[in-house]
Write a structure and sequence with these properties.
Two copies of one chain form a homodimer.
Chain A: E1 5-11, H1 27-30, H2 34-42, E2 44-49, H3 59-66, H4 71-74, H5 78-85, E3 95-104, E4 110-112, H6 122-131, E5 140-145, E6 150-156, H7 186-207, H8 210-217, E7 225-233, H9 240-244, E8 248-251, H10 255-263, E9 267-268, H11 282-292, E10 298-303, H12 305-311, H13 315-328, E11 338-343, E12 360-365, H14 379-382, E13 388-391, H15 392-402, E14 408-409
Parallel strand pairs in A: 1-10, 1-11, 2-13, 8-9, 8-10
Antiparallel strand pairs in A: 2-12, 3-4, 3-6, 3-7, 5-6, 11-12
Helix pairs in contact in A: 3-15, 5-10, 6-7, 12-13
Chain lengths: 411, 411
């Protein structure tokens, strides 16, 4: 029977390069992955440049592409997407930012850009929202906590630009920067001034906050500074349902991915214990995604841990996490009437410790696909697959065609 | 010796998906095709998205792409191409339409959208051309019969738009629609009014026509209505000879393909008994194409029947027709100094009964190609070929390169 639903499983940062510790294998090719291999054997495989050959994708631009929103047309920076994912309802024209709680020493130098990997910063963010006043600029703002040390800021008001730098010195031992406009426009100058004022007032709120007093008592680093980056003006995104005629949902622990899903109109689904790290509740996310397929024709499931291991350069850890992911995906083998697509959003080689432009392996499984001879889901095998080499923006149209939701161009 | 001629053989709708009645094979992969397999073995193969990955091509947009005319730049609707193919000399600015002869019952409801698959409607079209008068709109028109129940209409005059709907209710038992403008412009309103008047007058011509009186006497459905759709303004197409330096010809039973060939300046070659169906005189078309190579450096040969079987969902019939096509293509094995390219214009899976976005297999045979290890022309084998995955607009430049007619970009 023709499938009527799509699940897009993004194994974040899954792609890698040959690693000496794995005798030239990649973490994925070294991992025992019977579930993914069965999907590959029964389905069609290939490799994918999520943006284009040789272009290192961000997680934001790659996910936009995978959802069929060409990032060259609609990407305006990570800030507004993080802000949306953090729970701020971004309206077109608002300027959004990513933020970190950080620790300054007595001299004002950054001693920890993540404030001792603090958790539970909501009282701090609430205090900032209540106390900081930008009304003399005619600006309203929202400031909310994200996962761990992360937060998001959104500004709204007349004449705000989005061409501003960051106060984040990007290294410990340095003083935070002043915000500087990136152009000579009045609008960018205004945003820089607003941000300098925001940080100035926020410091005063944080300096004496009970949360920080308690942390000091426990020997923990205080969250006495806010570092802000990723300025971007919120754009307009054609709603997913209108664009494709499908109700969609997103299951992700990453604020950014949830935010991308939300800006295009996917329903975010919260999963208890989903952390975006290698200790995440993957089984719970898989169950939630399968449940979401009861009410949605499209589900984006992002599983983040492999990317983290790649950034940390831990090849064996990445391999072992992939084994866990594979086992957790087993329930998808019993899902019917569904096209299952598995891919990375980018490679995060353990030898690079950052995203690379190496294409990611992709597989598509379900009624109607033309199986190829590939019987293994990894970077080497999939390069011989029947999809050959596609780009990120190709995948959703290909999947829509399989569930008979593609439009004919011409007659 | 380097080839100096190109034959582009389009097996219309050849691509398919695995079919249960063929135990998971496609009609093409299930067919015995020694001729195509030999061309594949000696040549280079690949898969092709005629428009782009995941985009379902029309026959019109795909053939424009295969001829190297990017449809995004030059496609303006099927109507003007059908009209050209039906014998109307379309000039830039004219508005063209596809039409059907249909049957209305006494209440005015459509009882057959194809008037009992009537043939020989020329006297009806001639009578309409003579009697219908649109001069009060300042509009001239041509109305000519195509194959079977088909016809084409072209309007010419000041201030005519091409943004109009259709009077075709698309289902039997419903009343024909009034033509409606698709925008608020005066031009589209005028075209809608002209079409409503045309249909009104045409009905009066048809009601009492001897052809219909005779059909009534024979118990056949009368052709007492004209259904019109596919409005498009004729664009400008750089002549093929000017664009590529080649004299070209087209051999096709399909009015649309002949029309596309003619608008770009290919000489249409008529073949007796070529029907565009599975009973077509394929041998005659192959002979005509080979003969045309004596006087033309480029021949487009379209063989339509597989598409029809796909639309009808008949997998075995499609397979058997492909066997016949393969045998009919044998004379090409003796053609020299010629690059032979074989491809589909799109897939028409029997499980979908419509065009799909699945890529089509392509092979290129002739002096200079780099043979790959593929020895079989089908969807699975060609996906492993040396051309990898290309688009429709890529193929003609690749073929021109092989006959040394490509231009160097840069120095």
């Amino acid at each position: 029977m023709t499938a009527s639903r799509i699940v897009l499983i993004v194994l974040d940062g899954i792609g890698d390069r040959p690693h000496p510790a794995l005798r030239g294998a990649t973490p994925l090719s070294a991992a025992r992955t019977p579930v993914l291999d069965r999907l590959a054997r029964e389905g069609i495989t290939g490799i994918m440049d999520t943006i284009g050959p040789g272009i290192r994708p961000g997680s934001d631009t790659s996910h936009l592409a995978l959802l069929g929103y060409p990032p060259r047309e609609c990407y305006t920076g990570r800030g507004p997407l993080e802000a949306e994912g953090s729970g701020i309802r971004m309206r077109p024209g608002m300027v959004g930012f990513r933020a970190n709680y950080a620790t300054l020493d007595a001299d004002g130098r950054v001693v920890d850009r993540r404030a001792g990997r603090i958790h539970g910063t909501e009282p701090l963010s609430k205090a900032i929202e209540e106390a900081v006043d930008l009304s003399r600029f005619g600006v309203r703002f929202q400031f909310v906590s994200g996962a761990g040390h992360r937060a998001a800021l959104a500004l709204e008001g007349e004449g705000l630009g989005d061409g501003v730098g960051s106060n984040d010195p990007k290294k410990e031992g340095a003083f935070p920067h002043e915000f500087e406009p990136l152009t000579g426009t009045e609008a960018d100058a205004k945003t820089a001034a607003v941000l300098n004022e925001f940080v100035h007032q926020a410091r005063q709120v944080l300096a004496d906050h009970p949360v920080n007093r308690r942390r000091a008592g426990e020997g923990l680093l205080p969250a006495n500074e806010v570092l802000i980056r990723g300025a971007g003006r919120m754009g307009e995104f054609q709603p997913f349902r209108e664009r494709y005629g499908l109700a969609g949902a997103v299951v992700s622990a990453a604020t950014l991915i949830t935010g991308i899903g939300k800006v295009v109109g996917l329903d975010p689904i919260h999963v208890e214990g989903a952390t975006g790290s290698i200790d995440s509740n993957i089984e719970g996310k898989v169950a939630a995604a399968i449940e979401a397929l009861e009410t949605h024709s499209f589900v984006l499931l992002n599983i983040k841990g492999a990317d983290e291991a790649g950034h940390d350069g831990k090849a064996e850890q990445k391999r072992d996490f992939i084994v866990r992911v594979d086992a957790a995906l087993a329930p998808f083998l019993d899902v019917t009437e569904t096209v299952i697509a598995v891919m990375g959003d980018h490679s995060t080689p353990c030898t690079v410790k950052d995203h690379s432009a190496d294409p990611v392996p992709v597989l598509v499984h379900g009624e109607g696909v033309r199986p190829d001879r590939v019987d293994r889901y990894d970077e080497f095998a999939c390069a011989e697959g029947g999809l050959c080499r596609i780009t990120g923006c190709d995948i959703l149209p290909i999947l829509l065609d399989l569930i008979d939701k593609a439009h004919k161009y011409g007659a």
